[in-house]
Amino acid sequence: MSTLFISDLHLHESRPQITRAFFHFLQTRAIHADALYILGDFFDAWIGDDDDSALAQDVANELNQLHRHDVAIYFIHGNRDFLLGNDYADKAGMTLLPEQIVIDLYGTPTLLMHGDELCTGDSEYQKFRAMVRSAQWQQQILSQSLVARRALAAQLREKSQSMNSLKAEDIMDVTLAEVIARMSTAGVTQLIHGHTHRPARHAMELNSKPAERIVLGDWHEYGWCINATPDGLTLEHWAI
Question: 41 is in which domain, residue-wise?
Answer without folding.
Answer: 3-239
